[in-house]
Structure formats: structure tokens, C-alpha cells
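User: Can you predict the 3D structure of Transposase? Sequence below.
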Amino acid sequence: MPFSTCNVPDVSGKCTPSDLPPYTTVYGYFQKWQRKGIWQKIHDQVRHQLRQDLGRSGQSTVWK
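Assistant: Sure. Here are the predicted C-alpha cells for Transposase:
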């Protein structure tokens, strides 16, 4: 994955790969998805699938 050139000092986390939209666009989508709860749903589904792939129950028993 090629990275864009970031010549601005102290831009930690704001340099995105050149094949992605600008940082502000990506972060804007992230904020929107987080507000709508979409990001949490994606996280939960990925965690559930990973647990199943590892031979564990889809639901964590930590919170029970």
C-alpha cells in the first residue's frame, strides 16, 4: 500500500495511504458511523466472527 508524502511536522495519524480519500473525508465517515452506532455494530460483528473462527462461543462470557 503506497503512502502519501507528509511533510507537515507533528501530523500524527493524519497521513493516509495515497489510495484512500483525504484524512478529513475518512475521519468524517468514521465520526458519522460512530454517532449512528454503525461502528459499534461492525466491531461487534467482527469480534463475534473472530471468536467463532477461534472455536469459542460467539458471545463473550466476561460480562455475564
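DSSP finds two helices and no strands in the chain. The radius of gyration is 17 Å.
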